[in-house]
């Protein structure tokens, strides 16, 4: 049976796997996983459809819009086939599981080879990079469940071992199955990347529940029911055990810290911890050796000491938290002061664990990035700077803040930064609902946070709900602004084009007064409406042809063929003129007289040997000079802005920019529309109201003069972590 038939996927994958016996528990996992992945994939395709529709709605040109609609049509037609192909391939993995890691290692090896990179097309390279990033993120995020499942599957399948493990639902295998399934789609790289992005968002990012269910089924079947994660490196495991042994002497706190270290969700912090250790080694700083008279403080004990900080230290008692410059706190000094005040009943000197010191350093580096990040608006920058100690409390208890994009505190910080990007200044913040909301959130964290991260989750839910309401209002205003600007600019262009066409034609001859008045005061309005409605009625060329026919009929014609054509053209010409002038409500009292005069002029032209004398050449020359001057203004003044033109072309709808005025003031706005017909970029504020419009060349000049800056809009904490890791790598290279 053809895969594209309507037969349910279960029949396909049962037939595919029938050649090799599969254990009962694996069959149960297979059916659960394949069905679950099918549901998740449907959500991904629905999101792709929405994304393409939005892109088509905001397209800059008809060609671009048609491209997105064609992609939507292609995906809708072949969607069911892609879903079945994907599910059948995943089911086949359970019958013949490939070795885990083999596919990704081969892909990464090909990517790392410079000789091979030169042979890979840009589109293929972009797709490889997106896949590798997706796989790496998933393996870091689900490290614990994946390791457990891999170990258990290796016990179930014959021929598998610890050295050659298998896992049918490893991220690299699922990504491979999806890329194979979408090969049938005839779409371009941008649409393929949208597909991969939504697959990552809806399928790969939600693998956790399927991995947990698969582990649960194998545990019920008695496959390694008591699993213990021993780490990847024996040396690193020994060091962790040494620290854990020291913590065990102090009771349950040690066991909690040991669980944190081995949780598998701290991959990012582990990477940074190693970079910091390498940096200390390069600087000649020996590894920490604790004195017998030293009492090591860390984990929950350190979090408890931080909780004792008074609210005033956190600046929570201030009336307006965004006044003044961003708050700078020496976190190491604050922690040392707390340690010096800690009760030491045994007389030992308190000291921090090396890992906790690295946590404190990392939080300090993150907030250094915040204070230097130009993309944050000033009020939000000041407010977020107040949260250094609360965030330190969070990460001391839960290092997954650095690895989990869904961590409540991390989501809230990202939402605050994203919402405040459109603030230009703080002059009107006292009456600004968004400012009041963000200010209230920061104040509640400073006053109410007692170590329970649930507060961040509650505040984030409230803030997202508030933003949804505000964004709906702003979106409606922005839509009206965009439509109004498109209409205004199209009308402006229509009027300019009509004036140019008529001016060009009437400048060649001295027309009779009735004809001149009809064209300038009446038919120009008909042409204006025809241009605006041309997308639907296609009458623009007809309206221009009426002008050309009228002028031609007023010429003297001596040849019999031309005079015969004149006789055929004039009745229809007069009918078209009257119908068009009536449609635009031309003065009805004058219409009959005007048409009678026009008929008289046409009859005289037919009888006379010469009815129109050429006009002086000066008007036409003046027009040509003016037109050439206008065209010259539209060209770049010099090659200096060429590189900036490329950046302007890269700006997309929804991107934020900042303009600086000559007087030193600045304002932020969002690109709402690009109107290609007039080479016009329309920007709105965060309320959706228009603030400025400029041409492509004008924007390039603004950027060259340093008066326009593109603002980064990626997840705030992600950008901060990338900057910190990049800085550490450069220092340890």
TrEMBL record:
InterPro entries named in the record: DUF1631 (IPR012434)
Pfam families associated with the record: DUF1631
Region (Disordered): 232-260
Protein name per UniProt: Thymidine phosphorylase
Taxonomic path: Bacteria, Pseudomonadati, Pseudomonadota, Gammaproteobacteria, Pseudomonadales
């Amino acid at each position: 049976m053809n895969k594209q038939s309507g037969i349910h996927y279960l029949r396909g994958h049962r037939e595919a796997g029938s050649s090799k016996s599969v254990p009962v528990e694996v069959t149960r996992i297979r059916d659960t996983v394949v069905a679950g992945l099918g549901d998740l994939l449907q959500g991904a395709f629905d999101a792709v459809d929405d994304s393409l529709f939005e892109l088509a709605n905001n397209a800059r040109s008809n060609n671009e819009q048609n491209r997105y609609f064609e992609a939507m049509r292609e995906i809708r037609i072949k969607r069911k086939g892609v879903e079945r192909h994907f599910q059948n391939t995943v089911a086949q993995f359970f019958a013949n599981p490939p070795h885990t890691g083999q596919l990704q290692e081969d892909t990464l090896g090909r990517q790392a080879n410079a000789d091979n990179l030169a042979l890979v097309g840009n589109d293929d390279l972009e797709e490889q990079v997106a896949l590798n990033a997706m796989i790496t993120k998933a393996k870091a995020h689900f490290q614990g469940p994946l390791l457990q499942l891999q170990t258990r599957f290796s016990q179930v399948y014959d021929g598998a071992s610890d050295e050659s493990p298998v896992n049918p639902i490893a991220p690299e295998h699922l990504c491979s199955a999806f890329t194979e399934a979408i090969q049938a789609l005839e779409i371009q790289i941008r649409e393929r990347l949208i597909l991969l992005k939504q697959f990552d968002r809806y399928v790969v990012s939600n693998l956790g529940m399927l991995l947990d269910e698969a582990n649960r089924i194998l545990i019920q079947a008695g496959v390694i029911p008591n699993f213990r994660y021993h780490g990847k490196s024996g040396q690193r495991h020994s060091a962790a055990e040494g620290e854990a042994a020291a913590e065990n002497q102090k009771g349950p706190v040690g066991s909690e810290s040991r669980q944190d270290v081995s949780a598998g969700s701290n991959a990012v912090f582990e990477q940074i911890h190693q970079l910091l250790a390498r940096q200390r080694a390069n600087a000649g700083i020996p590894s920490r050796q604790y004195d017998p008279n030293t009492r090591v403080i860390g984990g929950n004990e350190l979090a408890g000491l931080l909780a004792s900080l008074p609210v005033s230290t956190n600046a929570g008692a201030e009336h307006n938290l965004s006044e003044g410059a961003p708050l700078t706190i020496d976190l190491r000094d604050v922690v040392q002061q707390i340690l010096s005040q800690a009760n030491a009943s045994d007389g030992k000197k308190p000291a921090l664990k090396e890992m906790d010191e690295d946590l404190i350093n990392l939080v300090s580096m993150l907030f250094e990035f915040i204070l230097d990040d130009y993309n944050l608006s000033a009020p939000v920058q000041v407010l977020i700077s107040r949260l250094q100690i609360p965030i330190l409390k969070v990460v001391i208890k839960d290092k997954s803040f650095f690895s989990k994009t869904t961590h409540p505190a991390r989501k809230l910080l990202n939402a605050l930064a994203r919402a405040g990007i459109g603030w230009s200044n703080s002059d009107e913040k006292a009456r600004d609902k968004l400012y009041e909301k963000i200010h209230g959130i920061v104040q509640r964290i400073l006053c109410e946070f007692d170590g329970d991260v649930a507060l961040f989750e509650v505040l984030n839910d409230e803030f997202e709900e508030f933003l949804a309401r505000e964004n709906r209002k702003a979106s409606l205003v922005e839509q009206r602004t965009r439509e109004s600007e498109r209409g205004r600019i199209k009308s402006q262009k229509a009027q300019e084009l009509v004036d140019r066409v008529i001016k060009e034609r009437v400048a060649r001859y001295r027309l009779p007064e009735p004809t001149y008045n009809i064209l300038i005061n009446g038919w120009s309005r008909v042409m204006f409406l025809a241009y605006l409605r041309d997308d639907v009625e296609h009458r623009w060329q007809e309206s221009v042809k009426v002008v050309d026919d009228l002028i031609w009929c007023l010429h003297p014609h001596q040849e019999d063929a031309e005079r015969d054509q004149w006789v055929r053209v004039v009745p229809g010409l007069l009918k078209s003129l009257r119908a068009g002038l009536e449609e635009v409500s031309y003065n009805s009292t004058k219409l009959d007289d005007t048409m009678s005069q026009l008929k008289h002029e046409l009859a005289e032209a037919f009888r006379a040997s010469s009815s129109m004398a050429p006009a002086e050449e000066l008007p036409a020359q003046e027009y040509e000079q003016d037109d050439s001057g206008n065209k010259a203004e539209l060209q770049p003044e010099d090659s200096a802005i060429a590189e900036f033109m490329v950046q302007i072309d890269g700006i997309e709808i929804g991107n934020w920019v900042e303009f600086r005025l000559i007087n030193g003031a600045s304002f932020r706005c969002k690109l709402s529309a690009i109107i290609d017909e007039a080479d016009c970029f329309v920007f709105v504020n965060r309320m959706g109201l228009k603030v400025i419009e400029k041409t492509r060349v004008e924007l390039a000049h603004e950027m060259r003069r340093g008066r326009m800056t593109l603002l980064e809009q990626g997840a705030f904490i992600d950008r901060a972590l990338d900057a910190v890791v990049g800085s550490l790598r450069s220092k340890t290279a």
